[in-house]
Amino acid sequence: MCFFDTLCRHLVQKLNLNYLNLTSCSLKTSMTKWKPDYDGAASEMAKAAVAFKNAKQFEQAKDAYLMEAEYHTENKALFHAAKAYEQAGMMLKDMKKMPEAIQLIEKASIMYVENGTSGTAGIALDRAGKLIEPIDLEKAVDLYQKAASVFENEDRLREAAELLGKASRLLVRLRRLDEAAVSLQKEKNMYKEIENYPTCFKKTIAQVLVHLHRGDFVAADKCVRESYSLPGFSGSEDCVSMETLLAAFDEQDEDGVSRVCNSPLLKYMDNDYAKLAISLKVPGGGGGKKKKPPVAPQGDSAGPPPAEEDDDYEGGLC
């Protein structure tokens, strides 16, 4: 195995020398060749990069891709330059250098946009978001939002809404609830525009949960009322559940809130929203107590007055 590895490295080094020699020839000028052949040089560096990648020599592969990108840039071939930068980023990913990898992929996305291939830019940013999400949620949110903006500018609202959905969930996980509320509203508007009404219903539920956790009952109620205009919402399971939840929340009925939040409709939402549901508490609810029912008034002719109840606050609040 060691001999095989040594042989592979030797062959790759020999190949690289050949590619560098060919690249040098491509870039030379003479009396009959006035301009460097950047296209030829880029082609040779691409071959060298693939050879290094196959040999798992990622540092050298990354350098080769970067040189390829430079030659394509000199040749005004922005799409191919962007591809090379993206490949260099993937080599850095394999080297566990994730922040540097993301920088190159972002650079590639900018070049895709400049080249007029915005869809490819959006896909690259989405891919970068997935790569960085396990280690940096803040950066992942930024990348998903940028990707959504790219698709929105292309009037590809379905892809834009899906990417905003990823950002919204991460904002909830980060407890940036004010931003999550804005993101969810934008998502919902996009789904409404493409007439995906069932998804609008689910976004309404998410909005209500976020607003209640923000302590803004009025905003939560407004989201439900605005959704009455969506075809099929009024009377739907989603609508009835939210009306029941808001009524219980307003009456400080913790048992009622718990029943709705632990129902299958909410428990089987995306995990971040399901966690919001099961952790929702009524402000001032007293740690799980039900709201006491009102005592019926008693007339003068009724029996003896009820026994005086202990005053929970006798002697002050302290």
From TrEMBL:
Transmembrane segments: none annotated. One of its GO terms (molecular function) is syntaxin binding. Pfam families: SNAP. Its main location: Golgi. Residues 282-318 are annotated as: Disordered. Keywords: Coiled coil, ER-Golgi transport, Golgi apparatus, Membrane, Protein transport, Transport. The keyword Cell membrane does not apply. One of its GO terms (cellular component) is SNARE complex. Residues 307-318 have a biased composition (Acidic residues). Interacts with RAB11FIP5. Interacts with VTI1A. Belongs to the SNAP family. This is Gamma-soluble NSF attachment protein. It comes from Sinocyclocheilus grahami (Dianchi golden-line fish).
